[in-house]
Prior knowledge:
Elements: H1 2-11, E1 19-20, E2 24-32, E3 36-43, E4 49-55, H2 61-78, E5 87-93, E6 96-102, E7 107-108, H3 109-114, H4 122-141, E8 144-145, E9 154-157, E10 160-163, E11 170-171, H5 176-183, H6 190-196, H7 201-217, H8 236-239, H9 244-253, H10 263-275
Antiparallel strand pairs: 1-2, 2-3, 3-4, 4-6, 5-6, 7-9, 8-11, 9-10
Amino acid sequence: MNGHIQRWLQERHFRPGQLIRNRYRIVGLLGTGSYGVTYRCDDLVTGAICVLKRVHPLRGGQRRAELIYDREFQAMTRLQHERVPDLLESFTYQGQHCLTMEYMQGLNIGQLLFEEEQTFTEQESLQLIHQLLDIVEMMHKQGMIHRDISLSNVLLHEGRVQLIDFGLTWREEEPPALVQELDELVSGDEQEKRIRRRLDASSDFYGIGHLLLYLLYSTYDDADDAQADNEQERSWEQELQLHPRTRQMLRRLLLIDSPYVHIAEIRSEIEDILADQPHPQ
């Protein structure tokens, strides 16, 4: 019976107006994902808007919830960056693991591309990635790999790039066996998962490469390929008209060619490409 009650509590959303921990008043649902549910809240102590994240993985049950909760708590406790949300509190509410954090304004890249239909030129795409590198480099210097850089976890607000969601972050002092236990519970394509869940910088570089590819495709017009309907499906290298060094950089980020070792290499590459492009009048 207790198991049924716990499952019901986990699957039930907090409702608008509900007061959590006598401090956080739920305003509304921000999003749901494979690892949990996030809500926009009013913090009655500070008067600020904040985010409450209820860790509720779709697979793996309570054990996986504990692993994700602890991993995100440990990462956010250590991270100090103006474009990463500050952790406010961690607690258990009605048997559910919760984190509250600073509310970061903006839309994620997925929303910008597929809901707002925003487009990014090659130059704008590279500038966005250049900003993201600052945050990722800070994590790497502190011995952490994000391992989940994606359309949903990179936000853009008034030209500023922000990074969220640290539930899969690996810390270098963490035993690999513990990480493997969590990763076994993550669904998805096995080859893709194997690359993205690596315990080294190439995992984040691969995520950055995919993010850049999505940004670059935002200006691609598939009507140009109407005459090629009967031909074989074309690769991104055939479809996208890119600076040769951008194409080369993408191949290395996506592990097609020899991968990057240090993030400084990627930054230098982007700066060289941008310097070689004509500036708008």
